[in-house]
Design goal:
binds iron/sulfur cluster; 11% strand; 88 residues; alpha+beta; Alpha-Beta Plaits
């Protein structure tokens, strides 16, 4: 089943959840806090959006709630390149 969020290449929801993470486009964020309010495990997504940082918090469920709820389409899923991240 194709995923409805903005994954750049065609993929299944399962693949996205297995390898994706949430990425903000901070310039579009109005700091409304809806993302943080709707995160089921309490990650401060708004803070990540303000700082323009990828949500690499290991507690993130990649459930997509924050992506779906953001009224400004600030958040999207992207692939997590584990080797690149570790190589920093
Ligand atoms: S819901 Fe969207 S616009 Fe609102 S704080 Fe979160 S990322 Fe920013
Ligand atoms: S994907 Fe889900 S768990 Fe991860 S930050 Fe967004 S709402 Fe929270």
């Amino acid at each position: 089943m194709p995923i409805s969020t903005s994954i750049s290449s065609p993929t299944t929801r399962h693949e996205a959840l297995a390898s994706g993470h949430v990425v903000p486009e901070s310039a579009r964020c109005v700091q409304c806090g809806i993302c943080t309010f709707n995160c089921p495990i309490g990650i401060d997504v708004r803070r990540y959006a303000r700082l323009g940082e990828h949500i690499t918090n290991p507690r993130c469920l990649t459930c997509g709630e924050c992506v779906q709820r953001c009224p400004r389409c600030v958040l999207r899923f992207d692939r997590l390149n584990i080797f690149k991240e570790r190589g920093k």
